């Protein structure tokens, strides 16, 4: 006879049956929200940090630009001051040059230079006095205070000093008699002044080719046309404070090659 034993109840927990997502509540949703919030906070922090860094760098650049602007303004002001100083120095230098030239002209005003004269007399002064009286035809007595040849050659230039400037003008007024004689008499001038005289003579010649009837007067290295005086300076040809070439163009109607 077999005994049938019925199973007794057991306390072993039963396994939970699987349920579909639709049947169970979304218990993972809070974790996802936390992750999203964390990501947003990280992004905001990064952007805030980047913005702060960018603002700091921009601030540095702005400060550098402001500093450079100040430096440029300082350089511009310094350049302007230097330019003004240069103008003043040029003006002072020009005035000084004119003053020195004026002194030299006064020292040389009673002198003449004779070139091409070969003396046949024992005394150079006696030979020159014959030149003045017999060839130039100077009737008035001349007081020659100094005569000497500039160098050892028999035809080297001769420097003659007279007692008065009027005697110099008298001799110079007679120089036409020396035409084709090979003897030349001129005022004693500083090399710089002589160069300006030659430039002025050339300028007068060029103007006469364009305007033959134009009245001009020349006094040493100064050319006078009407009430305007043209002279050479460190700037070139000037007419008072004006550009001499531009003023001449108004008169002759052509650019002068200076």
If you had to describe this structure to a student in words, what would you say it looks like?
Keywords: Coiled coil. The chain is an alpha+beta fold and about 260 residues long. The protein has three domains: about 35-105; about 110-190, 2-Layer Sandwich (Alpha-Beta Plaits), CATH 3.30.70.1820; about 190-250. About 50% of the residues lie in helices and about 15% in strands. The protein has helices at about 30-110, 125-135, 165-170, 190-210, 245-250, and strands at about 110-115, 145-150, 160, 185, 215-220, 220-225, 230-235, 235-240, 240-245. It has a five-stranded antiparallel β-sheet. A four-stranded antiparallel β-sheet has the order 2-3-1-4. The longest helix is centred in the first third of the chain and has 80 residues, at about 30-110.
Number of strands: 9
CATH-level-2 architecture of the largest domain: 2-Layer Sandwich
Order of helices and strands: HEHEEHEHEEEEEH
Q: Which overall shape is indicated by the principal axes computed on the Cα atoms?
A: elongated
Region (Disordered): 1-31
Coiled coil: 72-106
Keywords: Coiled coil
Biased composition (Basic and acidic residues): 19-31
Short description:
This protein is of the alpha+beta class and 258 residues long. Helix content is 50%, strand content 15%.
Looking at this protein, list some descriptive labels.
258 residues, alpha+beta, Alpha-Beta Plaits, five-stranded antiparallel sheet, four-stranded antiparallel sheet, elongated, disordered N terminus, coiled coil
How is the secondary structure organized here?
Blueprint: H1 29-108, E1 111-115, H2 124-135, E2 144-149, E3 158-162, H3 165-172, E4 184-187, H4 191-210, E5 217-219, E6 222-225, E7 228-233, E8 236-239, E9 242-243, H5 244-252
Antiparallel strand pairs: 1-3, 1-4, 2-3, 5-6, 6-7, 7-8, 8-9
């Amino acid at each position: 006879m077999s005994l049938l034993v019925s199973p007794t109840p057991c306390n072993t927990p039963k396994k939970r049956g699987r349920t579909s997502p639709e049947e169970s509540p979304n218990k993972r949703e809070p974790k996802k929200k936390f992750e999203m919030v964390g990501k947003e906070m990280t992004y905001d922090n990064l952007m805030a940090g980047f913005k702060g860094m960018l603002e700091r760098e921009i601030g540095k650049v702005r400060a550098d630009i402001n500093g450079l602007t100040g430096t440029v303004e300082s350089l511009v002001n310094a350049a302007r001051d230097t330019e003004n100083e240069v103008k003043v120095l040029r003006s002072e230098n020009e005035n000084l040059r004119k003053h020195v030239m004026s002194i030299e002209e006064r020292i040389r005003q009673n002198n003449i230079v004779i070139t091409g004269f070969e003396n046949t007399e024992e005394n150079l002064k006696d030979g020159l006095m014959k030149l003045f009286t017999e060839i130039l035809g100077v009737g008035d007595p001349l007081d020659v205070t100094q005569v000497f040849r500039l160098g050892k050659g028999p035809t080297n230039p001769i420097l003659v000093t007279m007692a008065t400037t009027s005697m110099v003008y008298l001799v110079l007024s007679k120089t036409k008699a020396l035409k084709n004689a090979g003897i030349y008499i001129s005022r004693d001038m500083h090399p710089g002044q002589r160069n300006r005289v030659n430039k002025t003579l050339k300028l007068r010649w060029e103007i006469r080719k364009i305007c033959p009837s134009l009245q001009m007067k020349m006094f040493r290295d100064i050319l006078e046309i009407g009430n305007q005086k043209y002279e050479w300076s460190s700037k070139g040809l000037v007419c008072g404070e004006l550009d001499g070439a531009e003023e001449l163009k108004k008169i002759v109607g052509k650019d002068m090659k200076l």
